[in-house]
């Protein structure tokens, strides 16, 4: 069963949209999904249906400025003039509390999976609420040097001040998603950096809820988040016994073609994290759940969850 739900966002005025996928049979676990940049939660429907068949309740929502949470096209890529990333984190936590409460009621474990920007948010989330999930999955994550993130933040802040918080900068886009598109050199198929599956790439390109440009204020918030992660802000608060699974395509430009993902892994292991697993997928690009070999990725996630089912 698939059901839409709504809640009041932490920004104080937006109506956030979410989806709950319920299995038909026995409930064995709860999985929260945190989607990435310039997409929407219903893109995870195929994976959620698979997890339902494994006995998992799946829940997720559209971030501010995304999907059905955005009140209009003008709201796409806009979190607010300031504190946008905090609003995103608080909305994630709101859904977590709902999911965790039900998991405890059903006496089953609760996990969170974050993809791309969602994985960055999840890495920050566990420095605040790391005792909430029983395990986390970081998919398509990234790591940028602190100086680079600071430079991006200053640039976005300057554009914000001159052009306005809701201005959509070609330069900022070119430095982020635009640079990923260029690495694959396919002007006819700009979504090719996401997946080798042409049908999935085409569906992304043609959907009005995908591929839009972030506003200057949103880029400012995103770069600030990247800097916090690069500086390992509050990493001492992450529970060392929290299980972590990291997944990435070997041809994912966001993860630096494995380099950035390995940096994150090395940070976790160096700080004494007790259960960190990392897996790379040959030839896969950024969106593992939409790749040609996604059935393998689905099974690998299921198997890892099975190993961490004790509550």
TrEMBL record:
Protein name per Swiss-Prot or TrEMBL: Alpha/beta hydrolase
Keyword Hydrolase included in the entry's annotation: yes
Span of domain Serine aminopeptidase S33: 26-293
Xref: Pfam families: Hydrolase_4
Record has Hydrolase as a keyword: yes
SUPFAM superfamilies: alpha/beta-Hydrolases (SSF53474)
InterPro entries the UniProt entry points to: AB_hydrolase_fold, Hydrolase_4, MAG_DAG_Lipase
Gene Ontology MF annotations: hydrolase activity
Lineage: Bacteria, Bacillati, Bacillota, Clostridia, Lachnospirales
Keywords: Hydrolase
């Amino acid at each position: 069963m698939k059901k839409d739900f709504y809640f009041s966002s932490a920004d104080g005025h937006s109506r956030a949209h979410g989806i709950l996928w319920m299995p038909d049979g026995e409930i064995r676990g709860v999985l929260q999904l945190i989607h990435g940049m310039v997409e929407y939660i219903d893109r995870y429907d195929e994976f959620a249906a698979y997890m339902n068949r494994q006995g998992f309740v799946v829940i997720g929502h559209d971030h501010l400025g995304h999907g059905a949470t955005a009140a209009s096209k003008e709201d796409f890529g806009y979190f607010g003039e300031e504190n946008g990333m905090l609003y995103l984190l608080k909305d994630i936590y709101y859904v977590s509390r709902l999911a965790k409460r039900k998991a405890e009621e059903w006496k089953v474990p609760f996990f969170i999976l974050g993809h791309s920007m969602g994985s960055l948010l999840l890495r920050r989330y566990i420095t605040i609420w790391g005792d909430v999930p029983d395990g986390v999955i970081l998919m398509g994550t990234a790591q940028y040097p602190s100086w680079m993130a600071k430079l991006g933040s200053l640039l976005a802040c300057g554009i914000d001040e001159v052009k306005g918080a809701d201005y959509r900068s070609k330069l900022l886009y070119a430095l982020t998603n635009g640079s990923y598109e260029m690495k694959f050199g396919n002007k006819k198929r700009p979504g090719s950096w996401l997946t080798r599956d042409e049908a999935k790439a085409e569906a992304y390109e043609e959907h009005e809820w995908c591929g839009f440009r972030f506003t200057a204020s949103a880029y400012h918030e995103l770069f600030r988040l990247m800097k916090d992660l690069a500086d390992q802000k509050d990493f001492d608060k992450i529970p060392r016994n929290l299980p972590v699974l990291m997944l990435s395509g070997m041809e994912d430009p966001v993860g630096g073609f494995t380099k950035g993902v390995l940096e994150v892994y090395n940070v976790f292991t160096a700080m004494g994290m007790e259960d960190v697993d990392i897996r790379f997928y040959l030839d896969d690009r950024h969106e593992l759940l939409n790749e040609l070999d996604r059935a393998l990725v689905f099974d690998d996630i299921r198997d890892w969850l099975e190993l961490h089912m004790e509550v």
